[in-house]
Amino acid sequence: MTLNRRNFFAGAATAATAVAATSAAASVSRAALAVVPEAVTQDSTATAAPLVPSTGRPYNPVVTLNGWTLPWRMNAGVKEFHLIAEPVVREMAPGFKVNMWGYNGQSPGPTIEVVEGDRVRIFVTNRLPEHTTVHWHGQRLPNGMDGVGGITQPHIPPGKTFVYEFTARRPGTFMYHPHADEMVQMAMGMMGFWVTHPREPKHPQIAAVDRDFCFLLGSFDVEPGSNTPKVNTMTDFNIWSFNSRVYPGIDTLNVRRGDRVRIRVGNLTMTNHPIHIHGHEFEVTGTDGGAVPKSARWPEVSVDVAVGQMRQMEFIADEEGDWSLHCHKAHHTMGPMGHEVPTMIGVDQKDMVAKIKKLVPDYMVMGDRGMADMGAMQMPLPENTLPMMAGAGPFGPAEMGGMFTLLKVRRDQKPGDYRDPGWFKHPAGTVAHEVDSAGLQPAPRDASAPSGPAHGEADASVRKPSGHGAHDH
């Protein structure tokens, strides 16, 4: 893990006058650059511990799944951050690396956490090969700080640093992303999370929670054997991710039994995602529009997160176990596969396979009995290619990929401990198992069911009614 923090928190008493934003995303002068906070970068894909604030207003920090929170410095009462838009290499799963564009060494970029009422100053340095901007998705702010290139501000040219400044006016869950060459830049992974915490610890609509997680949904089109996403794809994406990680490379969400848990999800893909949690019911307590009033909430086990939306789910983790958390679109929980692969279920391929193996010894038959065998196959793949199904659990292949992870609930997980506790140890008699056919007994007859012949069968001992009606004798 690389965390570059050289002089990041060094005092800069003169910065307020040198870099104050006097116009929409004003270009920073050479003199001002001398006091721009140094950028912090990160190259680890592990979930970082929550960043407990040491300056500014207090808040209960979030944990970014396979990500981290961007540090800041306080300067004359203003929170200052520094984002670097740049090419990055993201390891999406062990051994599978993709060339992306992101911020501060990663895609998605680091989460920005502030408190309602904070004055925020964000420096954005462009190290991309083309211009960019940053749009602060869902924020109430001056129009000139909205980050729409050519409309509300000039684009940030390569090599230049611009500054945005505004007050975080309402608490909630937000995102940041470019509004410049948007299809390309977002297809390359440029996005990040933003959380504004409530100023009052006892907010009437925002409950205090024990664990607060966040991640962004991403989609990429990476052909097998390649390293760079195809940026002109409209719908046929083949890599589906939580925070630019795919199963089994996505960390688990580890909580203590009885914890109140919040999960914040944002969607910057080109389709909707029904996010489903096993074993628990939750309520949607917030959107990018703000907190949902308590009177408008209802229990769910899945929530559809549409394009450009944010959703907050909250529940009490009161059921121990390893509970799946995933998109309920089945092909979003798989690795890359060809969209034009024909269905081969029930097709006898053995004669064809024998002929093909004479030419291609490693050829493997697939799909004639369904695709479950792919979870256990060790099929040769091109270099830097993600398997279609991957991962294994204590009972065998998981046959999953993409947008899938686990919520791990344990009674002995200590408060503030986010370490993976390992696989759940099921109490005796609580795991589905094979029935011993030799010991099978006939199913007991329902005492309330009528005796005699089954429904629809005739019995010679019962006289049929005459044609004049059932009550004729």
Provide a concise account of the structure shown.
With 473 residues, the protein is mainly beta. The chain has four helices and 24 strands.
What does the model show?
The chain has 473 residues and is mainly beta. The chain has a domain at 15-197: Cupredoxins -  blue copper proteins (Immunoglobulin-like, Sandwich). Helix content is 5%, strand content 29%. The strands form five sheets. Strands 1, 11, 12, 14, 16, 17, 18 and 20 form an eight-stranded mixed sheet that branches. The model is unreliable at 5-26 and 452-473 (pLDDT under 50).
Which features characterize this protein?
24 strands; disordered C terminus; 473 residues; 5-stranded mixed β-sheet; Immunoglobulin-like; 4 helices; globular; mainly beta
Overall structural class, as computed from helix and strand content, comes to mainly beta
Count of runs of 4 or more consecutive helical residues: 4
Q: What's the helical proportion of residues?
A: under 10%
Strand fraction equals 25-35%
**SSE pattern, N- to C-terminal:** HHEEEEEEEEEHEEEEEEEEEEEEHEEE
Q: Quick one: biggest sheet?
A: 8 strands, mixed
Low-confidence stretches: 5-26, 452-473
CATH architecture of the domain at 15-197: Sandwich
What average pLDDT do the residues reach?
Answer: 83
Described by the principal axes of the CA atoms, the overall outline is globular
Count of individual beta strands: 24
CATH superfamily membership of the domain at 15-197: Cupredoxins -  blue copper proteins
Between the first and last Cα atoms, what is the distance in angstroms? 92 Å
What do we call the CATH topology of the domain at 15-197? Immunoglobulin-like
Rg from Cα? 28 Å
> Can you identify the CATH class of the domain at 15-197?
Mainly Beta
